[in-house]
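User: Second chain of the day. Same drill as before.
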Amino acid sequence: MEIEKKFLVSRLPEELDSYESSRIEQGYLCTAPVIRIRRMDEDYILTYKSKTESQHKDPVCVNCEKEFPLTRDAYEHLKKKIDGCMIEKTRYRIGYQSHIIELDLFHGVYEGMVLAEVEFPSEAEAEKFTPPDWFGDNVSGDRHYANAYLACKKRQ
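Assistant: Same format as last time:
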């Protein structure tokens, strides 16, 4: 189970380059349910996600998520079959309170977009979360900020 909140970012944190980062490329073979391929640095992953309804008033993304390793050859084969565009981003991992913020700086078609995600062990923990002051609006319930949606739409 994946429980997360997604936020726009109003300003980048200081000393961003001091945090661990990975280069990510991901594409979607299907968006309902989500079947995604991802290259994160030199790791290749196939992910299956299905949406679950949250019972909380505060927007939270809850998904059943399963990941499977891929070989590079399998990834390259599947990459030719994706729908829409390839999502490209650099992901920074930033410790905050007892959580890890995954800060995504998008490249390519979505150059300039910046989103932050935080995963939680429970919906109750997600509801209690107080974001840092550099976070903007909570867009967890807005499908327009889901990577699967972005991959199939062109930026306006």
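The helical segments are 72-79, 123-128, 147-152.

User: Great, on to the next one.
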